[in-house]
Write a structure and sequence with these properties.
heterodimer; A: 502 residues; alpha/beta; six-stranded parallel β-sheet; 23 helices; 13 strands; disordered N terminus; B: 244 residues; Rossmann fold; four-stranded parallel β-sheet; 11% strand; Cys_rich_dom (chain B); oxidoreductase activity (chain B); Fe-S oxidoreductase (chain B)
């Protein structure tokens, strides 16, 4: 069983459900490992990966720093191309704009290609409420739509499902038993979706990149469904996060190099479409009417924030999810909102602009930094997670027991004599629980630790207690420093001022 | 030249043998270590939990303790990473302290960094005839960029057979307070890490951070598996001690 979006549970509760789901854990491990390996091969083959990363980062940094300029350039050019551009400051506004278009068109059915932004709107449900059928046409999205779930990965929405589970879902839809064989299952989906493409009134897409200088929106896809969605129906609605902008086609070259490699290890996705306005008289296909809805929904509040502005640099490749050892074990639904993994742990409290309600997700990280290392635009997600935790402390949203504990930490650690006394006290106190040098008791403050591993005991003599003797012993026996070592120390000392880490 | 040891609170209280091994190894290079008593903890547990004021109080003890040292060497990539990577952030609004922080960052090294990059020592003359696997701790490798140094040192230990740890770069699940706060997730991570260690059939697991080793070692003992868990300094010292 999988959890879906459910804000009434805690992350620990959701994690426990996922951790007890062997199918989910195996499916997530299998796929993320495959993606990690492919990414490594693709980036090695490309060469100079670090230089590419830095280049991509600079493009994103520059664009976001001048977002107002590039956004208005994009809008101007898109409008000149005949696109209806709408701004939505909240998810609700975006929904209202969509429903108005759907009503004006008398739409009965909508086909969608993959869009994470649309997940922020829960648009499918809202369309259904006014009697419009909304069908997901990305295979993974189609699977989870049938299952009544939400995506658990940014690019592999049904990562948590295995073949048998997909066969069960499709069989129910087909009204006959389908075997868990990929060609048969894909064939069923293809036939079913083909009908839907042909009868749809509106095609809905997301937007990977929006190019300011041409007013084009660019879609990366592997299944061809995005092409169907953006060519067959008469009306197209594109959802775009306001930060999806890049300045020029030249920048697209860098993004097209990085995104597929970081995401799946592909050199290029199977389809890359740049759509510049609705169908023109000479075009053989394309929508008669095209709308782009640019969504803020908490994004603009990151602008100007020195700690979080860079989160807008994200190109939604999912590499941080695949690299994350926490995601590997708990999958995407544990994170509780639209985006999962390390990027989700940052976006969730930031876009919702509510650290009290959503900030606990920032604790679901060991801060190992694998996300930063994997990120093609070098977003320091592991640092941002700490900033969110600090916000929780500053806003007074951490438990009283924790605040007390860190008050104690400050008292003890701000003075070495207190630290020494505390260790000595602990040594006496631990006698009741230590057996064979370890603590195994599953009660008391160490419970979370000892449930999964033994805890060590304090040493009989701390380092500071035995230092005097050790120093005296070494004082007498240490040979004189060789001139070579001396020279090396002197050289290193000269360079110390220039040592800096990222 | 005053070379000082930053022992870290964890090794001070629980694993003093790591500091002793470091002091004895460096003494063989003619370096007399100093231990400035005023030091306590780098402040990482408080910092990572968002209690920056509390973290600063702890960090100040280090800045004071090592003020007159020329070099500071520590047996932890994580605590050294805390200093190098986060002290500038922690004191960014305090220009006086920030200046001290930059000096401190410049002179602080993780143990294998100091040995290999500063002293140029890659062979300490150790003999350690055992099958060993190495866990590269996240903060040492990702925050400090320590990738080759421990491997170089291990490669020159005579008799030592180094076997690759599967998924070596994956975090062991320690993460400080994470291990207690998100114990179920952390537990799943360490369970898998221990499994990978066992798959290597190594007799010894070696690392450069006692936090990670306490976590993985605690799991291995919990499972009743007789894998010895050692800090790199301990292994090297044991290897030279046997030679004498």
């Amino acid at each position: 069983m999988s959890t879906t979006f459910n804000p009434t549970t805690t992350i620990k509760e959701r994690a426990r459900i996922s951790l007890n789901d062997e199918f989910l854990r195996n499916a997530v491990k299998y796929t993320t490992e495959k993606l990690r390996t492919s990414k490594k091969l693709a980036s090695d083959e490309l060469g100079n990966w670090e230089e590419w990363r830095e280049r991509a980062r600079q493009i994103r940094l520059h664009t976001i720093a001048h977002l107002d300029y590039y956004l208005s350039e994009f809008v101007k050019n898109a409008r000149a191309n005949g696109v209806h551009v709408h701004f939505a400051s909240t998810a609700r506004e975006a929904v209202d704009i969509t429903l108005k278009i759907a009503e004006a068109k008398g739409a009965k059915s909508v086909v969608k290609s993959k869009s994470m932004v649309s997940e922020e709107l829960h648009i499918n449900h809202r369309l259904e409420e006014i009697g419009v059928e909304a069908i997901e046409t990305d295979l993974g999205e189609y699977i989870i739509q049938l299952a009544g779930e939400t995506p658990s990965h940014i690019i592999i929405p049904a990562i948590h499902k295995n073949k048998q589970q997909v066969a069960d879902l499709f069989s129910e839809e087909a009204g006959e038993t389908l075997p868990p064989e990929t060609p048969i299952l894909a064939g069923f989906a293809r036939a079913k979706l083909r009908e839907k493409f042909l009868e749809a009134d509106i095609g809905m897409t997301g937007c990977n990149f929006a190019i300011a200088e041409t007013g084009s929106m660019v879609l990366f896809s592997n299944e061809g469904n995005a092409r169907m969605v953006s060519t067959v129906p008469k009306t197209q609605i594109t959802y775009m996060g306001m930060e999806r902008i890049i300045p020029s086609l030249e920048d697209l070259e860098v993004m097209a190099t990085m995104l597929p490699r970081a995401a799946t290890g592909q050199k290029l996705t199977v389809y890359m479409s740049a759509i510049t306005g609705p169908r023109r008289p000479d075009d053989s296909d394309g929508p008669e009417e095209m709308h782009i809805i640019i969504l803020d929904n908490g994004r603009s509040s990151q602008l100007g924030d020195p700690e979080f502005q860079e989160v807008l640099n994200c190109i939604r490749c999912g590499a941080c999810l695949n690299a994350c050892p926490v995601y590997r074990h708990v999958g995407g639904h544990t994170y509780g909102w639209v985006y999962s993994g390390p990027i989700g742990a940052v976006l969730t409290p930031r876009l919702n602009q509510d650290t009290e309600k959503w900030g606990e997700v920032a604790y679901a990280s060991s801060l190992c930094g694998a996300c930063y290392e994997a990120c093609p635009v070098k977003i320091p997600l592991h640092d941002m997670l700490v900033y969110i935790r600090r916000q929780k402390v500053e806003e007074g949203h951490t438990p009283a027991s924790e605040r007390m504990a860190f008050k104690g930490f400050k008292y003890i650690m701000s003075n070495h004599r207190r630290f020494k006394r505390t260790v000595n006290l602990g040594r006496t106190g631990q006698k009741v629980v230590v057996r064979d040098g370890v603590i195994t008791s599953k009660i008391g403050p160490l419970k979370g630790w000892t449930e999964y591993r033994y805890a060590p005991s304090l040493a009989e003599h701390s380092f500071r207690d035995s230092w005097r003797n050790l120093y005296a012993e070494l004082e007498g026996s240490t040979p004189d420093m060789s001139s070579d070592v001396m020279k090396r120390l002197e050289e290193a000392k000269k360079k110390q001022g220039g040592r800096r880490h990222e | 030249m005053k070379v000082s040891i930053f022992i870290t609170c964890l090794s001070d209280a629980i694993y003093p043998q790591v500091g002793e091994a470091m002091a004895r190894l460096l003494a063989r290079q003619g370096i007399k270590l100093h231990f400035p008593e005023a030091q306590t903890c780098c402040g990482q547990p408080a910092f990572n939990s968002g209690y920056w004021d509390e973290a600063r109080a702890s960090a100040r003890t280090l800045l004071e303790a090592f003020d007159d040292s020329d070099f500071v060497v520590s047996p932890s990539g994580s605590c050294t990473g805390m200093i190098q990577h986060y002290y500038p952030t922690l004191f960014k609004d305090d220009p006086v302290m920030l200046k001290k922080v930059h000096q401190f960052c410049g002179k602080t090294y993780e143990f294998s960094q100091f040995l290999v990059n500063v002293l140029g020592v890659t062979d300490v003359g150790a003999h350690f005839p055992h099958k060993v696997t190495y866990h590269p701790s996240c903060h040492g490798s990702r925050l400090l960029g320590i990738k080759e140094e421990p491997r170089q040192l291990l490669a020159n230990v005579r008799g030592l057979e180094l076997v690759d740890l599967p998924f070596a770069e994956d975090c062991c699940g320690f993460g400080g307070t994470f291990a207690v706060k998100m114990s179920d997730i952390s537990g799943a991570m360490v369970e898998e890490k221990a499994q990978h260690v066992l798959e290597t059939e190594a007799e010894v697991l070696v690392g450069m951070d006692m936090g990670c080793l306490m976590n993985i070692g605690g799991r291995l003992r919990y499972e009743g598996r007789p894998v010895r868990v050692m800090h790199l300094a301990e292994l090297l010292y044991e290897g030279v001690k046997q030679e004498v």
